Amino acid sequence: MDKLKTDRKRNEYKKQIVDYLVSRNLRGFRETFLELHPTDQVELFHEIERSLQKQVLLFLSPAEFADLFEGLELEDQLTVFEGLSYQYAVSMFNTMSADDVADFLAEIDTDRSQDILSSMDLEEAKRVEELMAYAPKTAGAIMTKEFVRLSVESTAKDVIAELRETAPDAETIYYLYVIDQQQRLAGVVSLRDLIISTPEMTVEDIMSTQVVSVNEDEDQEDVARLIKEYDFLAVPVVTPDKRLVGIITVDDVIDVLEEETTEDFDEFSASRGATDLSLTAYTAAKKRAPWLIILMFFGLVTANIIGIFENTLEQVVLLAAFMPLIMGTAGNTGTQSLAVAVRGLATGSFERGGVWKTVKRELGTGVMLGVICMLVLMAIIYTFYDNDFTLAFIVGFSLFAALSVAAVIGATVPIIINKFKIDPAVASGPFITTFNDIISLMIYFSIATSLLDRL
Amino acid sequence: MDKLKTDRKRNEYKKQIVDYLVSRNLRGFRETFLELHPTDQVELFHEIERSLQKQVLLFLSPAEFADLFEGLELEDQLTVFEGLSYQYAVSMFNTMSADDVADFLAEIDTDRSQDILSSMDLEEAKRVEELMAYAPKTAGAIMTKEFVRLSVESTAKDVIAELRETAPDAETIYYLYVIDQQQRLAGVVSLRDLIISTPEMTVEDIMSTQVVSVNEDEDQEDVARLIKEYDFLAVPVVTPDKRLVGIITVDDVIDVLEEETTEDFDEFSASRGATDLSLTAYTAAKKRAPWLIILMFFGLVTANIIGIFENTLEQVVLLAAFMPLIMGTAGNTGTQSLAVAVRGLATGSFERGGVWKTVKRELGTGVMLGVICMLVLMAIIYTFYDNDFTLAFIVGFSLFAALSVAAVIGATVPIIINKFKIDPAVASGPFITTFNDIISLMIYFSIATSLLDRL
User: Fold this and answer.
1) Which of B210, B265, B331 is the closest to A339 by Cβ?
2) What's the domain range around A89?
């Protein structure tokens, strides 16, 4: 079925499944619902009413519901969790992936999560607790503990037999990790390697010992970049003494990249955590207001600076007309440079290219843009404002100076911020634009004031 | 080896390999270089001087160099290509993936690409030509033709034997696609399914017939979203009559997502195609200048509008001081709303949530933000500007009106643009900000003019 057909089919399925739920047809429901891909189950569950959601819980075993629960957004998980019986919840957590359980338990209060952990199977609870101990956004925090471990002596035939037993539990069986007696990572066997070897070959013969692994404390973004660059399907996570503790798969990495992009966007627009469409207007306003108000105070600084030049303005009110043009163009140049820098930081291009090269390039770009815009603007003002060369020169030259500075500020501030690990929110688009506003206006009014007697 | 160690090792390797190249040690070079992952080969090749790059070509066979060539950026590919002998180039293209050959040949002039195609192996040339016929950014254009086809009658044992032969050529063997006699997609067998079945089971017994596929004309972004949502490793591409023509793998999809993100950023900052760090200052300026100049003309419109209110300004010059504050705050609100809309469009959230809901929410957010900022600002102006209530009211109320409008414009313009498939560049951040500037100033000066006699 192609995607269109999938969509149509999904609607038919949905109607059918809702009918089964309403008529309490257990068998009909299970036959249809359990055929669906977990992603479709999640979507359908998300769309139906609360009362029908409860019916779904009654019709599914904790193990069957576990797949669906893993796919839900945190908010939905919390709502559903409130309606679960304690025993159902514990059974469900026992069959979920340890990393998904850890993610969820980290979000409810400690007493309750401790209580649940104490009722869970010992082994699973231990895995979950290990994962919960990692700092957020590290390799350890996003890795999964469900993977296949091999020992060097096994033959290809043994491994295949073993996979028939354990495969359904593992997150991926496309890479199989080989450990030595100290639980240290010794090599990797891809399923591809395994399948093209003869049944009698041992793991030692097949495995590659050149395994790229990441440390458990590694930043999730670096892990994502590594997997992306090398086209890996998974990467093993090790402790400093090389013990294999988990793996990170490519689908987790896609989610990390998406998350980091959203963060970049939020920074770019000073709306951290507020670009989520599911927020209410009130919550969004509450999250966005502090940024706006802080930025408004910078606006008051600008107002004061203009106040200083009130005399100049009083003599030539026309100067006010070009303020938005100068501020706007400088702001746009700064934003373009910021985009270059943010993308460079996100894709790791600076590691190779060097920061100085970028700053020099942006200065060069800013100067060239400044010259072009200056010439165009001077010609227009000279023509349309009574051949007033002094006005044309003041506005044009201020624009040139403002653009040259703005390009450098737009590119360097995020790099500096990143280098010193300061909270990058202060380097976001609006802050840089506001900063550029202040500098451009100071340039503009200083030049205008010094040439005032010629106007 | 962990990542740090990889980096250190890479430097040692690099030094070693450069030494081998300089001393023309063929054997040493090949032993070290061919051990590296293709991604590392590419990086090393990119970093060394032109003369050493030529030495690499002499030391590698066309088939060995093909892997490296596939990984290079287009710009580097073009430079290298100019230095290749015709015969070397043809042999190299014969061993490259058809999709990579198609991507490259689309970038050189038609006469030369036709010439090369006519010298290539017939089968490979045909595959390349088929791929080149697709519109850019469609499933057909990004798919690979190197995949494993199975027929329903084969047994698991047969398939494994077959994989031992053909696997090294295929892009992925983790999903194997089953076709009927009309070449139509009939099912899928994952390597996982294959390995956990008994050797005598037939493909028909093992395969899943519920295959999600995409049409060859499907937009690449939709394909990427599908793979991401369902955590697929690959997805098959079919013609309208269901013939299987290729597959798209998860690593291609990560690149597509990255590409789309970069586009979103470029739009956000009106610097389309210019966020690439490898551009020279001159090229970057050339690409960015048109946007800046167009935006500068909008700035002239603003200058004209302010000119209309010259009388008002002449009477109360202080009004000019608050222009940047009102424009800036409205601009920031608009940008925040734009971020919400762009992210919503990128992640497909609107398909479910509905556009109206978002517009209403943004209006609500804008009004609330407007009220908060108005109250804060009125209090400050009243206190610090000689208890001038009229001034406080003009500035505060204008800010409220400007924010409410800006939030709605920021959210709706990109959605409308997207709906009517207009070039989305006109909905980019700077355009919306400029539009908001004009509206805010008109609100501000209209209110100020009407209350002028009270000031």
Assistant:
1) B265
2) 3-134
Q: How many domains does chain A contain in total?
A: 3
Of A11-15, A321-325, A380-384, the one with minimum mean pLDDT is: A11-15
Asked if residue B269 has pLDDT above 70, the reply is: no
Q: Are residues B124 and B162 in the same domain?
A: no
Cite the beta strand spans of A180-250 per DSSP E: 185-190, 214-215, 234-238, 244-249
Residues A96 and A119 occupy one common structural domain: yes
Residue B40 and residue B85 in one domain:
yes
Dist CA B236 CA B244 (whole Å): 7
Does residue B432 lie within any of the structural domains?
yes
State how far the Cα of A431 lies from the Cα of A298, in Å rounded to an integer: 9
Q: How many CB atoms lie within 10 A of CB A90?
A: 19
ipTM: 0.73
What does the DSSP 8-state code read for residue B171? S
Whether pLDDT at A395 is above 90: yes
Query: Looking at the structure, do residues A67 and A167 belong to the same domain, yes or no?
Result: no
- A314 Cβ contact list (under 8 Å, min separation 6): B317
Q: Is B122 on the interface with A (CB under 8 A)?
A: no
Q: Which of A212, A321, A365 sits opposite B307 (nearest CB)?
A: A321
Residue B348 contacts A where some CB pair is shorter than 8 Å: no
Q: Determine, yes or no, domain membership for B390.
A: yes
Pair (A111, A153) in one structural domain: no
Encoded tokens for B102? 């198609």
Which residues from chain B sit within 8 angstroms of residue A343, using beta carbons? Answer: 262, 265, 275, 277
Which among B212, B279, B328 has the least Cβ separation from residue A299? B328
End-of-domain residue from the set A249, A269, A297: A249
Q: Does B157 touch chain A (CB under 8 A)?
A: no
Residue with tokens 């819980």: A57
B39 to A231: CB separation less than 8 angstroms, yes or no: yes
AA letter at B159: V
Chain segment A124-172, per-residue pLDDT in tens: 999 999 999 999 889 999 999 888 889 988 998 888 888 877 766 677 7
Q: What's the rounded Cα separation, in Å, for the pair A213 and A208?
A: 13
Looking at the structure, do residues A320 and A234 belong to the same domain, yes or no? no
Quick one: A311 exposed, middle or buried, by C-beta within 10 A (0-12, 13-18, 19+)?
Answer: exposed
Interchain proximity B275–A6, CB inside 8 Å: no
The count of CB pairs under 8 A between chains A and B is: 373
Amino acid letter at A259?
Answer: E
How much is the pLDDT for A198?
84
B400 vs B190: CA distance, rounded Å: 59
